[in-house]
Amino acid sequence: LTLALLCAGISRGMRYVRPTTRDRLLWLGSRDASRVILAGAAAFVMGIALVLTMSRSGISAFLLAVAVTLAFVLRGMHVRSRRSVAGLYLVSLVVIVLVWVGLDAILTRFAAADWSEFNGRLTSWTDTFALFLRFPITGTGLNTFNVATALYPQTDPTTRFDQSHNDYLQFLSEGGLLLVVPALIFAVLFVRDVRRRFRQDE
Q1: Residue 137: exposed, middle, or buried by beta-carbon count in 10 A (0-12, 13-18, 19+)?
Q2: pLDDT tens column, 54-93
Q3: Backbone angles phi, psi at 147, to 5 degrees
Q4: Do residues 170 and 162 lie in contact, with contact meaning Cβ atoms separated by under 8 Å?
Q5: pLDDT one-digit tens code per residue, 25-52
Q6: Residue 164 DSSP one-character state
């Protein structure tokens, strides 16, 4: 969302500014320019924070988000100069974040993962879904996963998970269909509205 806000700001930026150096410099002091700069700084800080967690799925999602945004920029921005600015920022964002955190540390983190059974999380996911099947309508209650796993048998009694390591499955087991169905309806409506906005030529 932040990257999209930034790219939208770049796309709309200086649209009504005369192509002179003075007017472009004056635009940098405007409210619109401040929003673009703020979104760019926010994306950088969030990218750094996300990669510093050393979460493999988080790092992968960060890279995927940048790649998807870059694809939209290359396909959707028709003004070459703005497309170049947005593309350069996205590439620089990835490079700076990876160098800042340390590419060696990130590669070591990925290499250390035991990819059999998704690094040991498949058992937790199976147990979480079994917990949902016990309480399919209302779930166990929000923020009760830790207690529920202590009360109901697990696949491996010697290992106990405080979280399911899958937000969607944990939401399903804690909230049941009572929360999941409205959430799915909201997601469908959200996607529908986003698709409508993309079709508008603004």
Answers
A1: exposed
A2: 888 889 999 999 999 999 888 877 778 778 888 899 999 9
A3: -75, -45
A4: no
A5: 777 777 888 888 899 999 999 999 999 9
A6: -
